[in-house]
Write a structure and sequence with these properties.
Blueprint (H helix, E strand, L loop, with lengths): L1 H22 L4 H10 L3 E8 L10 E8 L5 E8 L5 E4 L1
Length: 89
């Protein structure tokens, strides 16, 4: 019984740690700055967007915004630790 409780405790801590890590995987401030510099307005970030960026990207932030032509678009801003950010649709 003691082994089972230990295993459950370790698994619970692992899930909590993974959840905390994933909450830090988006960067709304960097995403907003990148989109503003590209001419987008009415920017609304939608949080972490897994599986949308490349393997070198650490932060993935979903968004909706108005592009420079006035169209409403949605996509993801991908940012790496050692590289800049890119916008994907």
């Amino acid at each position: 019984m003691h082994k089972l409780l230990t295993i459950l405790c370790i698994m619970t801590l692992g899930v909590i740690a993974l959840g905390a890590f994933c909450l830090s995987c988006d960067s709304p401030d960097r995403a907003t700055m990148t989109l503003r510099q590209a001419g987008y307005t009415d920017i609304r970030t939608t949080g972490w967007d897994p599986f949308s960026c490349g393997e070198d990207d650490m932060f993935t932030t979903g968004f909706t915004a108005t592009n420079p032509r006035g169209d409403t678009v949605s996509g993801v801003v991908c940012c790496g630790l050692w590289k800049g950010c890119t916008v994907r649709f």
